[in-house]
Specification:
7 helices; mainly alpha; single chain; globular
């Protein structure tokens, strides 16, 4: 077992806030994140043609429209469960690195660029910040920034080793 990337306080903050964020279920978090990602970061839309996003139809970017598409719901669920896996394994650095590296290998096949993982992180942090109503300087938000940094770092490393 490897040393945890997170302090006890960070681990507690992440687990407690994730429990709050997922009170209505895990999948809705993924739905909010992807919806915001499509709307805030137009450059990624073309990557999501297979989940109902159509750049030529702006109405395809509404949550109502996206929720009608099973492919969107399934992808959003995978996003949320990937975050959940990290949160459940905060004390298992090897598991986090392995799972996130696999994520990178999968995404490079779909022409995802390394910087797009960083863009997703910004969106995720903004969604969490809004849901929890914390400033980005709050210790819980700092823990989330650190956690997503670990996710992105391992995913980007995985993109290089495919």
């Amino acid at each position: 077992m490897s040393k945890s990337l997170f302090t006890a306080d960070e681990s507690t903050a992440l687990k407690t806030s994730w429990k709050t964020l997922t009170k209505a279920g895990i999948a809705p978090v993924g739905q909010l994140v992807l919806h915001r990602f499509f709307n805030d970061v137009p450059e990624v839309r073309e990557l999501f043609y297979n989940v109902g996003v159509d750049e030529d139809r702006p109405q395809s970017l509404t949550m109502e429209s996206l929720m009608k598409d099973n492919r969107f719901r399934e992808h959003a669920k995978r996003v949320a469960y990937a975050i959940d896996t990290v949160i459940r394994n905060l004390d298992e650095t090897d598991v986090i690195v392995e799972k996130c590296s696999e994520l990178g290998k999968i995404h490079v096949k779909h022409k995802v660029q390394p910087h797009q993982f960083d863009l997703l992180g910004e969106v995720l942090v903004n969604v969490i910040k809004g849901a929890l109503n914390y400033d980005v300087t709050h210790p819980i938000m700092q823990a989330w920034i650190k956690a997503y940094g670990a996710i992105a770092s391992a995913a980007k490393a995985g993109m290089k080793t495919r």
